[in-house]
Structure formats: C-alpha cells, structure tokens
C-alpha cells in the first residue's frame, strides 16, 4: 500500500464564487468533503500542501473532520481552463474496510530498445482505473519497457495488480513503439507553359529532323518533266 499522507484542512464557513476567488488569491484552494455517512463539509487547503499531497505516492489520505479521524480519496480535481491551476477539489470519505474505486498512475521504467534504434514511443494513457481494498491501494502500475522493439505495443490486458482489479477497457493500448515516419520530398511541379516551351525548343547545335516530304527519302521532280515543259513552250 502507498504511504499514508495526512491532509491538513481548515473548515470553510464563507461560501460563494467571490469568496472562493479571494481564497485562491491568498494561496488557499476551496474544496468539499463528503461520504456515504457524513454530510458535506466545505473546507480550504493550502495550495502548496495540496501539491505536496498530490505529488506523494499516497492515494488514500488521512484527515480530521471536527474531532473525527477519517480516510479520504480525491474524487474530483477541477483545473482552470487557461492557467491549469487547481481551483477546487472534492474529497470522498472511505472506510479502510471497503473496496474502493480510484485511478492510479502508469509509470514507464527504462528506455525501450526500439527507441535506441530510432523508434518513437507513444504513451496513450497515464492512469488506470482500479478496484481494490482501501488498505491495499498500489502507488502505481510500473511497466518495464526496455525490451520493447519497433512495432511492439502493450495493452491494458497485459497489465495486472495485486489484490485488485483493473477496470479500464482492456483493449486500450497503453504504450507503443513505432518506426519514424519517412519524410517525402515532393519535386516542384513545372507549370504547363514551361513544359510546352521545353518541348518546342531544340537543343543548340542539334539538327532538327526534317518533316515528311523533305530531306532524304523525299521524291524530287524528275528532269524529264522539266524538259517536257520547256519543249511545249
């Protein structure tokens, strides 16, 4: 199981979009906690502390709501569409006795043999949705890619986790190594006028073939005919 990370939350009493914006300007991120057995509790969390929590390898977090110690998972994280900063988080309470559904990262280990020979590696998904006991959530799914050659691919059905089930579509390609695309250099097309000009122009010094009826092989007027014309005069 991933190491447990304790979240430090402050209860939030003032609600509304304007108040939430003021909190974010002060480095606080608004959020809400809820569970099957608890009413919704609005809170704020320090932005840096939140980033530390998300960068930790923990997936189930410990919190204190009032005087009660609980465990939660991040149910939803909302990001600003332009700055991509976190603007709101939802925490969902879970029991360590429960089987829970959540997403965990896919981590690629090593450098693929196919990449070393010029191939291009593409990772299509970075997370897997899984179901497992709350006490046995893995930090991540690690995939060793060192032996992957050009043309190789790994699908979700090739992966597995201990004490749990992968819920992501098994036919999805997780990672693949492909040959680099060859650059096709197109020759510039000559305009029609240029082509016609080239066909009509002879090469300097080259003898132009005679047209039919001229030159060697053509019939010449006979001398007798000329004499007959002179006699008739």
Range of helix content: 10-25%
Order of helices and strands: EEHEEHEEEEHEEEEEEHH
Total domains: 2
Strand content is: 25-35%
Mean pLDDT: 82
Major β-sheet profile: 7 strands, mixed
Quickly name the level 1 CATH class of the largest domain: Mainly Beta
Instruction: Report low-confidence residues grouped into runs of 5 or more.
Output: 212-218, 225-233
* Bulk shape: globular
Question: Termini separation (Å)?
Answer: 128 Å
The number of strands is 14
Count of alpha/pi helices: 5
Topology-level CATH name of the largest domain:
Ribosomal Protein L25, Chain P
- CATH architect. name of the largest domain: Beta Barrel
What is this entry, summarized?
By secondary structure, the protein is an alpha+beta fold. The chain contains 5 helices and 14 strands.
Plain-language structure description:
- With 233 residues, this protein is an alpha+beta fold.
- The chain folds into two domains: 5-94, Beta Barrel (Ribosomal Protein L25, Chain P); 101-178, Ribosomal protein L25, C-terminal domain (RNA Polymerase Alpha Subunit, Chain A, domain 2).
- It has helices spanning 17-25, 47-55, 113-116, 192-200, 223-232; strands at 5-6, 10-11, 28-34, 41-46, 61-65, 68-79, 86-94, 99-109, 120-123, 127-133, 141-144, 153-155, 165-166, 173-178.
- The strands form three sheets. The protein has a seven-stranded mixed beta sheet.
- Mean pLDDT is 82; it is low at 212-218 and 225-233.
């Amino acid at each position: 199981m991933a190491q447990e990370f304790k979240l430090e939350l402050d209860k939030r009493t003032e609600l509304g979009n304007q108040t939430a914006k003021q909190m974010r300007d002060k480095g606080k991120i608004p959020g809400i906690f809820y569970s099957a057995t608890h009413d919704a509790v609005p809170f704020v969390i320090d932005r840096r502390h939140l980033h530390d929590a998300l960068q930790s390898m923990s997936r189930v977090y410990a919190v204190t709501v009032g005087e009660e110690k609980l465990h939660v998972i991040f149910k939803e994280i909302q990001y600003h569409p332009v700055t991509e900063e976190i603007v709101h988080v939802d925490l969902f309470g879970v029991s360590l006795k429960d089987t829970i559904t959540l997403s965990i990262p896919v981590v690629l280990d090593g450098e693929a043999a196919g990449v070393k020979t010029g191939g291009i590696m593409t990772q299509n998904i970075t997370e897997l949705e899984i179901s497992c006991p709350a006490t046995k959530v893995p930090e991540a799914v690690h995939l060793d890619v060192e032996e992957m050659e050009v043309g190789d691919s790994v699908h979700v059905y090739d992966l597995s986790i201990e004490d749990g089930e992968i819920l992501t579509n098994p036919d999805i390609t997780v990672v693949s190594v492909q040959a680099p695309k060859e650059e096709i250099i197109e020759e510039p097309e000559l305009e029609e006028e240029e082509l016609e000009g080239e066909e009509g122009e002879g090469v300097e010094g080259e003898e132009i073939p005679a047209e039919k009826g001229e030159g060697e092989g053509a019939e010449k007027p006979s001398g007798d005919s000329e004499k007959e014309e002179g006699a008739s005069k």
